[in-house]
Amino acid sequence: MKHLTHSFVIATSIFVTSFAAAQTVTISNPWVRATVQGQKATGAFMTVSSKENAKLVAASSPIASVVEIHEMKMDKDVMKMAALPNGLDLPAGKTVELKPGGFHIMLMDLKMPLSKDTTVPLTLTFQDTSGKKTQQVVQVPVSTQPPAGQSMGAQHNTPHSH
Ligand SMILES: [Cu+2]
Description:
Bound molecules: copper (II) ion
Distance between the termini: 47 Å
């Protein structure tokens, strides 16, 4: 695992902590799709918002040899995905969703299967408009589906009845 030079990065390594106020970029509802034995690639998803204009320029994880920031989109009725050559734009104050069928972090050449209910460390590198880079480590839960609260309206306390 990559050595982190700034201690504050380590302090925020537990995802969605109260230390988040000290940093520009907030990550919520991270998850990575579980894999089966022999599967070599999967996607990680999350909601990202930045107080200032920034970019997600790189990602890495000890469990994958190659990690890329991908976009999935329709091209003549065919779903295609490709790495974003300049990273993912995070406009100030805007919420950017990485979700199945859209932006995602692609974990490739997996070194082990990812089983449900474990977590995977993911180091995200952000770059501000001056070119300064900061890293944030997120402990991403492995799941077979998006976490509750992923979609916008789900945060309301709606009474649930059958
Ligand atoms: Cu992809």
